Amino acid sequence: MNKAVVIKASIEYLEQQYLVLENAARQAHNDATHEESVAETQYDTLGLEAAFLAQGQSNRAQQIHQDILYFKNLLESQVNTEIQVSKISTDSLVRLVNENDEQATYDYLIVKQAGGFKLCINDKTVWVISQQSPMAKRLMGLTVEDDIEIRVNQQAISTYIAKIQ
Length: 165
What we know:
Order of helices and strands: HHEEEEHEE
Strand content: 25-35%
Distance between the termini: 9 Å
Number of helices: 3
Largest sheet: 6 strands, mixed
Number of domains: 2
Structural class: alpha+beta
Number of strands: 6
Shape: elongated
């Protein structure tokens, strides 16, 4: 798995999320400012609720925009995406291999922000996780050939670190 490919796929995923949120925020704003949303009684809160919804969606869209900029900067910093790194740190792409089945691999991209989603690239799953996640905390500082036990579908699996980029 190439780190630049994973970063580009992350940007595409986040851009799709951004468009969805931007459209939802625009619709909620239109609902909040529509003449039918004006409160007729003190208990009529439709306009107020729509305004809160629009604000929340706008805030989330702004956060995703910042996340996109982070990934674009990360992509620009990739001079040679195939360079092996000695220790796992933030912005590392890590491949774990099942000790009992060499064909079973698990790929993780550890990032400063915007983690918490998975990508499917060439029929292979890559988890994008934040550096604050429990999995990232367990991986940080490990090196190639280190062993680590992970849980997949509530089952403990013994793996080793095969590659760090």
